[in-house]
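FORM 12-B: Structure-to-Sequence Request
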C-alpha cells in the first residue's frame, strides 16, 4: 500500500485557497503545508487549517523540507517561473496553475527541467477535467459525432476588469485552447488568424481567433466588452452536434441529432440540390456533478504514482502558447 504524496501549496492568493481546499480533501494527495511571503495570507490559512499543516514564508524552506514530494504553484507568471524552475531542479513533482509560461523560452525550459529530473509537470487546464467535457470527448472518440467540421467557443463578459498587462485573448482564450487541444486529440494548428479591437487602453478588449486544423476549423471569441456573460461551446460533427453551456444550472450539455445527408450520386446528377438537411431529436445526458479542480489534482497524483505524462503537461501548454504567440503577431500586424 503506497503512501500519499505530501504536497505544499506555494501562493495563497486568488486561486490558492481553492487548490488548498481540494488538496486537503483529496484522497490521493496530502496537503503538507502552505507557503506565502505575505504573513496575512498565512494567517487566513491558519484560520482554516490550524496546526494540521505546516506554514512557510519562503519557498526555499519548502524545498529544504525532505518530507515534501511535490509542490503546487499558484503565482503570477514572473514569480511563478523562478519558483517552478527551483521546484523541478529539486526533483519534486509540480502542479502548476495556468499559464505554464507566457514566453516560449520559459515553457521550453520548464519542459527540459521536468525531463532531466524525471518528474511530472502538470498544468491545471481545468476545463479538460470537467465531467461534461469528458463526456464530449468520449462521444468524439467513439465516433458518435462523426467527423468534426467546426468548433466554436465564446468566453465573454462585461469585464469584470480591463487588464493593462494583457489582452482579452491572453486572459481568456487559454481555457478554450486547452479544451480544443484535448477534444481534437492534440493536433497541430495549420493556420492561425486573429483580429481584435482596442478601446480602453492599449490592449484588445475583444478578439476573434480562428485556427485551421487538418479536417476542421475552430473559432475562439474572447471579450471583456459584452452585454452577456457566456461560457459556450458549439461543436458540429457530420453525424451529430453538441452545445455545452457551462453557465446553465441544468441542461448544460445538449446533443442534437442534426446534420446533412449527402448522396454523391445525386450530387453528380443534380448539382447543388444533392444535400438534404437532417433534423432529428435532441438528447440531454445526465452527468453527475464533479469538482473539476479536484479531478485535475487527482489526475496529477495518478500520473505521479503510475509514472506517466500528464495529458495537460508541458507539451500541451507549448502547443497552446504557440497558437497564442502566432495570434499575437497577427494582432500586431
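FORM 12-B RESPONSE
SEQUENCE OUT:
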Amino acid at each position: 500500500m503506497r503512501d500519499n504524496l505530501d504536497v505544499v501549496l506555494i501562493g495563497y492568493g486568488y486561486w490558492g485557497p481553492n487548490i488548498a481546499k481540494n488538496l486537503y480533501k483529496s484522497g490521493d494527495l496530502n496537503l503538507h503545508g502552505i507557503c506565502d511571503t505575505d504573513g496575512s495570507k498565512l494567517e487566513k490559512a491558519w484560520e482554516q487549517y490550524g496546526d494540521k499543516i505546516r506554514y512557510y514564508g519562503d519557498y526555499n524552506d519548502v524545498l529544504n523540507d525532505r518530507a515534501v514530494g511535490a509542490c503546487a504553484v499558484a503565482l503570477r507568471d514572473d514569480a511563478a517561473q523562478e519558483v517552478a524552475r527551483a521546484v523541478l531542479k529539486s526533483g519534486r513533482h509540480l502542479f502548476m496553475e495556468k499559464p505554464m509560461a507566457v514566453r516560449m523560452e520559459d515553457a521550453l525550459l520548464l519542459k527540459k527541467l521536468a525531463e532531466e529530473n524525471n518528474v511530472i509537470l502538470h498544468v491545471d487546464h481545468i476545463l479538460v477535467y470537467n465531467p461534461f467535457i469528458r463526456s464530449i470527448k468520449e462521444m468524439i472518440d467513439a465516433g458518435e459525432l462523426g467527423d468534426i467540421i467546426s468548433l466554436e467557443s465564446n468566453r465573454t463578459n462585461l469585464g469584470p476588469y480591463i487588464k493593462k498587462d494583457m489582452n482579452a485573448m491572453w486572459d481568456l482564450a487559454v481555457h478554450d485552447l486547452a479544451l480544443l487541444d484535448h477534444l481534437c486529440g492534440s493536433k497541430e494548428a495549420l493556420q492561425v488568424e486573429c483580429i481584435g479591437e482596442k478601446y480602453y487602453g492599449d490592449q484588445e478588449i475583444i478578439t476573434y481567433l480562428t485556427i485551421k486544423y487538418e479536417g476542421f476549423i475552430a473559432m475562439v471569441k474572447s471579450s471583456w466588452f459584452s452585454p452577456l456573460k457566456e461560457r459556450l461551446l458549439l461543436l458540429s460533427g457530420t453525424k451529430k452536434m453538441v452545445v455545452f453551456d457551462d453557465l446553465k444550472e441544468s441542461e448544460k450539455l445538449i446533443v442534437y441529432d442534426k446534420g446533412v445527408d449527402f448522396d454523391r450520386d445525386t450530387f453528380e446528377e443534380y448539382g447543388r440540390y444533392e444535400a438534404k438537411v437532417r433534423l432529428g431529436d435532441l438528447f440531454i445526458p445526465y452527468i453527475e456533478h464533479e469538482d473539476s479542480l479536484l479531478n485535475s489534482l487527482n489526475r496529477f497524483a495518478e500520473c505521479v504514482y503510475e509514472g506517466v505524462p500528464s495529458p495537460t503537461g508541458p507539451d500541451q501548454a507549448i502547443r497552446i502558447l504557440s497558437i497564442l504567440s502566432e495570434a499575437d503577431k497577427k494582432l500586431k500586424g
